[in-house]
What does this fold into?
Amino acid sequence: MKFFDAHCDVLFRLFSDPSLSFQKNSSLHVTYEGLQQTGSAVQCFAIYIPESVRPESRFFVALEMIECFYTQILSNPKMKMVRSKKDIASLQQGEIGAMLTLEGCEAIGESLVQLKTLLRLGVYSVGLTWNHANMVADGALETRGGGLTAFGKRVVRTLNEEKCWIDLSHLCERAFWDVIELADYPIASHSNAYSLCLHPRNLRDEQIRAIIQKNGVIGVTFVPQFLHNDQRPATIADVLRHVDHICSLGGENHLGFGSDFDGIAHTVEGLANVTHYAHLINELLKYYSEDQVKKFLFHNFYERMPK
It folds into this structure.
């Protein structure tokens, strides 16, 4: 059963350690071999700029990660860049779609030209912040909790015009609501339900309903600390609790997965890497119909692509 994973950080891992190989490496959660083994259809690859990078260097680090995407990911003839439904529908047997995303607008500073450059190089989905403040808005861990800046509103309008996803994951609440008012194509690539796990990166029920009303998608994520607040390992059962809850809010057609593989130090029991999607699928099929599971895994993100 094919799947569409809305977020992983393998580009950051490859950029940070050039000795790693995307083709096959036991220390990576996501590899070509793993994607092939599991039957992946689309994997999103995030550009994440660590806070340690100086502001004047962030755009160039983003370009280096895009170079890594082209040389390490797309150098494999079975990995194909996808930027539209048509691209995904055109994938041949054994081919895997690779989508480039931006996790936080720190890389663009206060420049729409830099944003448009990243879009022209292949970025399809743009997260406006990471956890803290930038020139666009405040992130989920920023104590100020500010909304969109004037520049941030220009970024949202530009992304609407370019028919790109606007990723709400990592935004603080006030910024979330500012974006919901303006965004044509909002998603949350990797966020869970706050009512089940009280973490500021998770979405409150009214936020989940708002994404559903805007015809967006919420990517349930495998980050253990976003799954429960107990002092125990996270399990696939915890992932299913969030799936159940989002469905209970009317999200059956607006729910997908964004693993955050290679962006997490600890993993869910039974979901240690991309090959373990098979374990998740088996558990989902115990409680949901095959058609529902296919929607969660692939069709909900695919059907809501802007172009």
Notes: The radius of gyration is 18 Å. The mean pLDDT is 97. The beta strands are 4-5, 42-47, 79-81, 96-103, 123-127, 165-167, 186-187, 218-220, 255-257. Residues 58-73 form the longest helix (16 residues).
